[in-house]
Specification:
Layout lengths: L3 E10 L2 E11 L4 E6 L5 H9 L6 E6 L2 E2 L8 E5 L10 H13 L8 H17 L15 H13 L5 E5 L7 H18 L2 E5 L3 H7 L2 E6 L14 E7 L25
Parallel strand pairs: 3-8, 3-9, 6-7, 7-8
Antiparallel strand pairs: 1-2, 1-4, 4-5, 9-10
């Protein structure tokens, strides 16, 4: 059984169709790079997986069950903007995240539970290369280190699915390459299922085991909002690092049509 199943999902805002006829099956442990033109619904799709938004039509299943109606610990998320507390140190940020996830009523842990939380946090600091920065505040950290902290926060709850929305878009090329290595190591060691939205096709090929391309298969120039995007290409990438992008060409799917004006 697939970990995530998407069945005939449609989504729009008023008269604007954003997504239509989206169907997908994702197995546990896949790394899905989601690409496409701006405004084709990639981030909307991610927000629906997180339960921040909901389909107008269709269903999304996680482990065979309808997706919960609100974000939960089974799905972690990292955005391009760093979601960290500026007044807390690196270690305190992780402790706070762990306490909110583990004790939602009190927002604090005590005794043996707090000791275990500190042990988990120390392990996570080491895993993402933040051990030396544990007592520093976010304002003194580089963008790449702040993004490591945001990723560590998302992973503390051990989510089944990690959702990344342009997580490395604001980083310089060298820092981005470092983050790619960290992300791949975390994915392999934790056997996570990942969806990553990116505008960088090279990044998608570098990290993904599967490339999902969102585009509009139907287009009416007199009514550009009448049709939504869907997954027009679904490409398995067994070894993305060995693929020569200069020879990468795709052919339209059989469903690709153009509406008459």
């Amino acid at each position: 059984m697939s970990l995530i199943s998407v069945r005939d999902v449609h989504k729009g805002y008023g008269d604007v169709r954003v997504l239509e006829r989206v169907n997908l099956d994702i197995d546990k442990g896949e790394f899905c790079a989601v690409v496409g033109a701006s405004g084709c619904g990639k981030s909307t799709f991610l927000r629906m997986l997180l339960s921040q938004e909901f389909p107008d039509r269709g269903e999304i299943y996680l482990d065979g069950e309808p997706l919960a109606g609100e974000p939960g610990a089974d799905r972690g998320v990292v955005f391009q903007r760093y979601s960290v507390f500026p007044h807390l140190t690196v270690a305190e940020n992780l402790i706070a995240a762990f306490e909110f996830q583990s004790s939602q009523f009190f927002g604090r842990l005590f005794g043996a539970a707090r000791k275990r939380a500190f042990e988990r946090v120390e392990e996570m600091l080491s895993g993402v290369g933040l051990a030396r920065a544990r007592d520093l505040y976010p304002k003194s950290l580089s963008g790449g280190v702040q993004q490591r902290l945001a990723i560590a926060q998302a992973l503390l709850a051990e989510p089944k699915v990690l959702l990344l929305d342009e997580p490395f878009g604001a980083l310089d090329p060298g820092t981005r390459a470092d983050m790619h290595e960290i992300m791949l190591n975390l994915w392999k060691s934790r056997e996570m299922t990942i969806f990553m939205v990116t505008h960088d096709l090279n990044e998608g090929f570098r990290l993904g085991t599967r490339l999902l391309v969102f585009d509009k298969p139907r287009w009416d120039p007199q009514a550009p909002d009448a049709y939504g995007a869907t997954i027009t290409y679904d490409l398995p990438l067994e070894d993305a690092a060995d693929i020569d992008l200069s020879h990468f060409q795709t052919k339209p799917t059989e469903e690709t049509t153009h509406a008459e004006p």
